[in-house]
Amino acid sequence: MRLVYYLLMEESLEDFLERAQRDFLAHISLDCVVFGFHAGQLKILLLKMKHEDKRALPGGFVRKDETLEEAASRTLRERTGLENIFLQQFSVFSDPLRSDPDARPQSLVLAGVSPEKTGFFAQRFISVGFYALVEFSQVVPRPDVLSDTCDWYNLEERGPLILDHDQILAAALAALQAQLNYQPLGYNLLPRKFTLPELQKLYEAILGKKLDRRNFQRKIFSYGILRSLDEKRTGVAHKAPYLYSFDLRKYQKALKLGLQGGW
Amino acid sequence: MRLVYYLLMEESLEDFLERAQRDFLAHISLDCVVFGFHAGQLKILLLKMKHEDKRALPGGFVRKDETLEEAASRTLRERTGLENIFLQQFSVFSDPLRSDPDARPQSLVLAGVSPEKTGFFAQRFISVGFYALVEFSQVVPRPDVLSDTCDWYNLEERGPLILDHDQILAAALAALQAQLNYQPLGYNLLPRKFTLPELQKLYEAILGKKLDRRNFQRKIFSYGILRSLDEKRTGVAHKAPYLYSFDLRKYQKALKLGLQGGW
User: Fold this and answer.
1) Pairs from A5-14 (Cβ < 8 Å, separation ≥ 24)
2) With contacts defined as CB-CB under 8 Å, which chain A residues touch B62?
3) Chain segment A107-144, per-residue pLDDT in tens
4) pTM value?
5) Nearest by CB to A181, which of B28, B69, B258?
6) What structural domains does chain A harbor?
């Protein structure tokens, strides 16, 4: 597994292009919006494209022998080093003009790759969007063959993205915000033990607005998904806040039936 | 518009196969689970395939110049006669073995179409699933070029479906059941005026279980999405029940923020 992983990492651009034509289904791509939470901020994982200023969502293609979900998991394993990432398919992006099918990616042109080798990119792609929620501290970001770097960015400081990736990101964030209204959220983004202010900051970062502390606590307690631990956060200057974890049985039930319970 | 529609209807199988290769994107299809509600039963729209006993969900392919949503709307317009159908993309079906890429549909083999003409079907398809909610009485079902009939079926009496269409139908029903837990539902399925027992029957048909009348009414009223009309259902034998309609402003808000309101 590890060996295969490093072999892939060291693949040249030319080898990748040759392999792409042979191994991947035509017309179908996937893009992943990877959310992490760190120091009170919502972060997203972006690639800095080679030879151009724009950034890109981690993406990939579907091998002829794998499902779309397997392709997304493989892509994210290659970019983050993580197995078993929480992945949710949220939308499909199919505007015929979302990319120019006759254009080759700028990074390939500038890398001096000859036109006959970049044929795989010169076609229309319908891209399936996935969002992923990961624990920030576990990720070891790694660039792909088309990019120089892979890194975390704050949402507001991400700069311009390629193609329709800003639209894909906005749709993923909207899906996450909608989820806050009817399902629990946080298990995949927070450490196992967290304080109520930390959970509130996560909600605020996703919603992009401040919440009233007392209303937040009343509402979140009413869902019955938190377990109060007999433990306090140590090493903080002020009054030490209590730690909580999710009650996983109730969390899973609320994921399935919604926060207000089923019929 | 009408003219184009009837021309399409009269297209021969051979013409369709020739056009498919030229006009549609490879590898991508769509399948639509069309739900209607009639006489207290949840119905789905199915095609009876030519030359075989199995039934199929209405489906289609994506033209090179259209989005996936446009392709789904076009497909449903051709099958139902309706414009502006409520459509929701709910999952993507991508098992490499979901259809045998070397096999031609049985209906084409039995129709005596030569193998070199059925090439478009002899490939792997990743299918995007949409569910549609329509008002039963408005639909005029029409078969496509591969099918003999297009008709409404009760969920339990539908018989075997082709390929993985049973799985696609089950996933659509699960998505609808989940929606009942956090969003309003019924506007696209019921006539404009309805009684509370009619609304309860719709919920029961989707959930596949009986609900307690008083609990149902308490819960549904608590969402504040119903408008009580000063009118009773006439022409019924027993005590005439009051009519209701949805308060569309509140209904739309609850669609966006969930039934318990946003943060």
Assistant:
1) A5/A77, A5/A78, A8/A78, A9/A78, A9/A142, A11/A145, A12/A145, A13/A108, A13/A111, A13/A113, A13/A145, A13/A146, A14/A113, A14/A117
2) 94, 126
3) 677 777 777 777 788 889 999 999 999 999 999 999 99
4) 0.91
5) B258
6) 2-179 (3.90.79.10), 192-257 (1.10.10.10)
